[in-house]
């Protein structure tokens, strides 16, 4: 890469905490956020443990001082909360800063649409929710409230949206199209996704067990996470603290099946390879892999095989999905934040609930939170449609 | 632009026929008398393998055909990236899944409709059909979805030195439920009969709905297949009316251009009396002799309709002919040579974009 | 007896959108997930719901799907034994 991409702000809200600090504390204490669904009204809420953020929309709106008449989807509420934390840390002054906003979301405002879908024809008051389901609507709501007016876009590549939003922002900075890029993703729990994943029979009725021989599917989650990216030159000039560098990224398509990953993990293999190459590193320089690790039979096998193909010696690997649930479009961004925390604190995170080694794989995931020397972290995000993306974050030295 | 990028191939399906390279854009257009302009293409089996089609939504089918058309037009077998934009994704299947979910109280649902509901379905399906594992991304930003895809192509080509051919497109489909809802919230005109050729005469709220897919091979290499150069692109998420003129000025200035150097305008005017003032304002910044065109009466309004404008502009630059059916201003004069076209689009006051296409 | 098999063929074509196949083209013993008909994992999930919706049979162990959905014949036998 020509100009190094510095990360100068991070922010998040997930089932394990309402800030980066709270998320780190939970990761440190190995406290999971997976539990019974309380806020989302669904006939399945008792059946499928999930990573729900235990805050109501009303509370979130009040906390962010959002006027009552403003239409904020839950994803927008979460997104605004997390974006604000990242922008504050990076000391960005809006609306004056030349900042591009690239948001990842797949659910968008589906939570609103599913509540009002049957009343649109009858209730005039519901009409304003018609457009809420489009991903861009949630992005625009966040942009308006943050006063970001120019380049705003939404990436929606299913569960790799957050990672692709980050790499799109990095390209904007490299091409000098903006001084700052606010990048990441947000997705909330919805009946639509809960039922969709249930129809695919990939939701677990237990807490998820990534890379475990007896894994039985994923737990859904909800989260928002954002990074502020800028060029190293600019960050240094302003004397800002550089939290980490986004030193490489790779995007590839599995081109195997609409939803399932290939047996050889070709897409994930290529994404990891490209990311490591673009960081100008060799695989042995990677000190920790924050895996996609959804705990579905298919993903973990495919990703595991791909990891074994990329690495001769496998570095510590863990999936943090058992902490937060699979937060879909936010996952890539949330796990980018976790990767940065790994670099900042020189630690690797536990792959919670792991018990039995997968017979097809040689490696075991990390089983405890521990100190390690970490200079480069690889973060994986894969989605339906074969969309695979990997990011490499490096320590500020 | 970060570097020179060119349009080397075009494919379009929608309410108007695909226009092949050899045929002029000024050939005859289909006319419509309802506010819903369905895609008129039907020969999908010529482009998509038997059996593969059974689960495909209309977006996937339209997208696959337009993508393959664009590749063959550019004489390219496999692209080096696939980037799509869509405002609503495979809307019909998403609507059906949601309706079933609610009607069946979350029981006995099958996955086929759900798996189409992620917005990257078209991009993923094109990769699957072409069996290519290259860079693949999807943007979903209302009326700037297609423009976001073009911008991403530009950004990705920035660091490339070797020849690269990117497949970039925009797709949106009509869904019955969405039509009903868009009538309800005023996005589609309430009139039962709307003559598309008189779209601007109605002066009522809303527009006419359309659907379609437009794909382009965007390359960093100019060759015999090249239609034109994409000189610049800029997206504004929100723009107050009074700032439009200033943004236009800044945009032209950054690209070292004066208003007089724009030989033709293509505007996303869609007959919505509440929002067409943006276009009127923009038009006032240009001499009255400058040809000012619109196109949404031909294909309907949809989030990625501006892909058609890009195709229209590319054809005009190559053929040096102006389709009369698209001209807005009777005061226009045929320019000696059409060297540069400015495209401007927005939808309901959001997702504004400028693109400059240049003759090569 | 054979009515159920015909009915299943019709339903499979309908539910799985097998536009290019007609009822007469599916033999009772044709491998549904093999080269002959070419179904995949998503179709298997559709068939599980079809079993439950139309025949009131819940396939509690999805791993059993492989034998049950092997052919129209195995599916019909399974339905006859579980109705």
CATH topology name of the largest domain in chain A: Peroxisomal Thiolase, Chain A, domain 1
Helix percentage range of chain A = 25-40%
Could you tell me the radius of gyration of chain B in angstroms? 20 Å
Termini distance of chain B? 15 Å
SSE sequence of chain B, one letter per element: EEHEHHHEHEHEEEHEHEHHEE
CATH architecture of the largest domain in chain A: 3-Layer(aba) Sandwich
Taken as a percent bin, the fraction of beta residues of chain B is 15-25%
The N- and C-terminal alpha carbons of chain A lie at a distance of 17 Å
Question: What is the CATH topology descriptor of the largest domain in chain B?
Answer: Peroxisomal Thiolase, Chain A, domain 1
- Tally of structural domains of chain A: 2
The CATH homologous superfamily of the largest domain in chain A is named Thiolase/Chalcone synthase
* Overall mean confidence score, pLDDT of chain B: 95
Chains forming the largest contact: A-B, 68 and 64 residues
CATH architecture of the largest domain in chain B: 3-Layer(aba) Sandwich
How many strands, what sense, and barrel or not for the largest sheet of chain A? 10 strands, mixed
Helical content class of chain B: 25-40%
Strand order of the largest sheet of chain B: 4-3-5-7-1-8-12-11-9-10
| Structural class by secondary-structure content of chain B | alpha/beta
In the CATH hierarchy, what is the class of the largest domain in chain B?
Alpha Beta
**Number of helix segments of chain B?**
10
Outline of this structure?
The complex is a heterotrimer of chains A (397), B (360) and C (83). Helix content of chain A is 32%, strand content 18%. Chain A has helices at 20-28, 57-63, 74-89, 110-116, 135-146, 161-174, 191-199, 232-237, 266-278, 297-310, 321-324, 331-345; strands at residues 5-13, 99-104, 152-155, 180-187, 223-231, 244-253, 288-290, 317-318, 347-348, 370-371, 376-382, 387-394.
């Amino acid at each position: 890469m020509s100009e190094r991409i510095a990360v100068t702000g991070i922010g998040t809200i997930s089932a394990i905490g309402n800030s980066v600090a709270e998320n780190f504390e939970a990761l440190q204490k190995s406290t999971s956020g997976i539990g019974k669904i309380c806020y989302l009204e669904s006939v399945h809420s008792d059946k499928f443990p999930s990573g729900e953020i235990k805050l109501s929309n009303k509370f979130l709106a009040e906390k962010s001082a959002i006027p009552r008449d403003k239409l904020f989807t839950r994803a927008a509420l979460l997104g605004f909360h997390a974006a604000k934390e990242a922008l504050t840390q990076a000391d960005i002054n809006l609306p004056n800063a030349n900042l591009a906003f690239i948001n990842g979301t797949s659910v968008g405002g589906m939570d609103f649409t599913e509540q009002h879908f049957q009343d649109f024809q009858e209730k005039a008051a519901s009409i304003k929710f018609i457009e809420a389901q489009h991903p861009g609507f949630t992005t625009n709501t966040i942009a308006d409230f943050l006063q970001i007016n120019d380049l705003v876009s939404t990436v929606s590549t299913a569960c790799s949206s957050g990672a692709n939003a980050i790499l799109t922002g990095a390209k904007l900075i490299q091409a000098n199209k903006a001084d700052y890029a606010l990048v990441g993703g947000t997705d909330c729990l919805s009946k639509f996704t809960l039922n969709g994943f249930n129809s695919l029979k990939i939701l677990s009725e237990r807490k998820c067990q990534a890379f475990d021989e007896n894994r039985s599917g994923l737990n859904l989650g909800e989260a928002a996470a954002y990074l502020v990216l800028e060029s190293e030159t600019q960050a240094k000039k302003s004397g800002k603290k550089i939290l980490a560098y986004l030193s490489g990224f790779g995007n590839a398509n599995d081109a195997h099946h609409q939803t399932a990953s290939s047996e050889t993990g070709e897409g994930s293999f290529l994404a990891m390879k490209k990311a490591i190459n673009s960081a100008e590193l060799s695989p042995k320089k990677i000190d920790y892999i924050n895996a996609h690790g959804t705990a579905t039979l298919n993903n973990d096998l495919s990703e595991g095989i791909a990891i074994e193909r990329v690495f001769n010696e496998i570095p510590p690997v863990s999936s943090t999905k058992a902490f937060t649930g699979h937060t879909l479009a936010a996952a890539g961004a949330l796990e980018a934040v976790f990767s940065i925390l790994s670099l900042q604190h020189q630690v690797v995170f536990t792959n919670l609930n792991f018990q039995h080694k997968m017979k097809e794989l040689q490696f075991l995931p990390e089983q405890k939170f521990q100190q390690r020397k970490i200079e480069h972290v690889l973060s994986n995000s894969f989605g339906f449609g074969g969309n695979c993306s990997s990011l490499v974050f490096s320590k500020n030295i | 632009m970060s570097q020179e990028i060119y349009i080397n191939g075009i494919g379009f399906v929608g309410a108007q026929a695909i226009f092949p390279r050899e045929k002029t854009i000024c050939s005859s257009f289909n006319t419509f008398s309802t506010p819903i302009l369905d895609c008129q293409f039907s020969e999908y089996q010529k482009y998509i393998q038997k059996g593969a089609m059974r689960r495909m939504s209309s977006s996937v089918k339209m997208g696959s055909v337009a993508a393959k058309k664009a590749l063959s037009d550019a004489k390219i077998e496999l692209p080096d990236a696939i980037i799509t934009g869509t405002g609503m994704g495979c809307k019909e299947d998403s609507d059906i899944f949601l309706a079933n979910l609610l009607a069946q109280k979350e029981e006995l649902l099958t996955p086929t409709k759900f798996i189409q509901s992620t917005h990257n379905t078209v991009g993923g399906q094109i990769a699957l059909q072409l069996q290519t594992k290259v860079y693949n991304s999807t943007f979903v930003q209302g009326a700037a979805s297609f423009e976001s895809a073009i911008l991403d192509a530009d950004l990705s080509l920035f660091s490339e030195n070797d020849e690269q051919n990117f497949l970039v497109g925009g797709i949106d489909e009509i869904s019955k439920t969405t039509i009903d809802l868009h009538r309800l919230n005023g996005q589609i005109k309430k009139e039962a009969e709307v003559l598309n050729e008189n779209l601007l005469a109605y002066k009522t709220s809303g527009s006419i709905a359309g659907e379609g897919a437009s794909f382009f091979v965007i390359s960093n290499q100019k060759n015999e297949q090249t239609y034109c150069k994409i000189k610049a692109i800029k997206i504004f998420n929100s723009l107050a009316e009074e700032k439009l003129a200033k943004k236009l000025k800044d945009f032209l200035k950054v690209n070292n251009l004066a208003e007089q150097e724009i030989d033709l305008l293509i505007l996303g005017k869609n007959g919505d009396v509440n929002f067409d003032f943006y276009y009127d304002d923009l038009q006032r910044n240009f001499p009255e002799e400058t040809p000012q065109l619109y196109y949404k009466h031909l294909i309907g309004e949809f989030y990625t309709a501006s892909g058609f404008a890009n195709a229209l502009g590319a054809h005009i630059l190559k053929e040096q002919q102006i389709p009369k059916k698209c001209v807005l201003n009777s005061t226009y004069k045929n320019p000696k040579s059409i060297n540069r076209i400015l495209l401007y689009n927005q939808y309901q006051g959001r997702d504004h974009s400028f693109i400059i296409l240049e003759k090569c | 007896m054979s009515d159920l098999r015909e009915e299943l063929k019709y339903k499979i074509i309908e539910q799985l959108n097998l536009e290019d196949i007609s009822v007469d083209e599916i033999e009772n013993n044709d491998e549904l997930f093999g080269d002959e008909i070419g179904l995949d994992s998503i179709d298997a999930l559709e068939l599980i719901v079809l079993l439950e919706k139309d025949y009131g049979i819940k396939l509690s162990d999805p791993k059993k799907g492989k034998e049950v959905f092997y052919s129209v014949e195995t599916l019909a036998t399974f339905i006859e034994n579980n109705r």
